[in-house]
Amino acid sequence: RLNRISPATGTYCKFWMFLESTLDASNAFLAAVISIQRHTLVFQPNILRIRFKRYIFYYSPLGFAFCYPLIFYLGAVIFYDCDDSQWNFELNMCGDTTCYLSNNQILATYDWIVNTALPIVVIIFANATLVIRVIEQKHRRQQTISWSKQRRMTLQLLSISSLYLVTWIPSIVTGLMQQVNATTSLYDIQENYISDLTYLICLLLPWMCIGLVPDFKKWMLKYFRRLKRPPNTIGTVGQ
After folding, report:
1. What pLDDT does residue 98 have?
2. Which residues have a Cβ under 8 Å from the Cβ of 89 and sit 6 or more positions away?
């Protein structure tokens, strides 16, 4: 709206980069952990009945998904020694020139591979293989595959995988290309168009999950029909 960052301060830019990076990474790691835990819930649910194993295989990974990105970006963004003159207050996200990305090639590469690419690959692979494992197990036990029963799970897992694939892969590819050979044109495309794709996860994922809840569509239809139904006017005539 203003064509510039407001307030134009390095502190604000650092806070914004820290907040967005932490939330993006936490979202990706949490989805990756849950995707892996689905395999345990489906094929080895008895493991989680033991308290010690429940803390190891269930609570600890979830805690890691929240704590690791927070700690990493506190060090990489907030406490990383850096000159505030790096920020460009006339570009989107202050120029997206966080010091560790431009000054530390090893740390920048680690961030892209471990904090961005790895969880996205795990999400896609874990959800796709879960569908395959369910089908193989039924086939191995010579059970008839009831596609009507498996349809909801298959749609949910494949839709989540597709959403992360479409929204994150372009950003990962262009980010890595920027690390190898940074160009102004590629930066403009990434910052003004491709990076905004990741916000689709926040907008679409909740509706995607709710839409696959059993009887959700029936409940919505009943709700809207009740809204459209004319009010009861019996006993109001002449008043």
Report:
1. 63
2. 4, 5, 8, 13
Distance between the two ends of the chain, CA-based, in angstroms? 54
- 212, 156 in Cβ contact below 8 A? yes
Task: Give DSSP secondary structure letters for 66-87.
Answer: HHHHHHHHIIIIISS---GGG-
Radius of gyration of the chain (CA): 24
Whole-angstrom distance, CA of residue 161 vs CA of residue 225:
34
Burial tier of 76 (Cβ tally within 10 Å: 0-12, 13-18, 19+): buried
Token code pair at residue 125? 């692979």
d(CA 149, CA 32): 24
Query: What is the number of alpha carbons within 13 Å of residue 195 lying toward its C-beta?
Result: 15
* Buried-state track 206-238, b at ≥16 Cβ within 10 A, e below 16: eebeeebeeeeeeeeeeeeeeeeeeeeeeeeee
Tokens of 182: 């940074």
Percent of the chain topping pLDDT 90: 11
Per residue in 56-72, pLDDT (tens digit) is: 888 999 999 999 999 99
Question: Would you state the pLDDT for residue 210?
Answer: 78
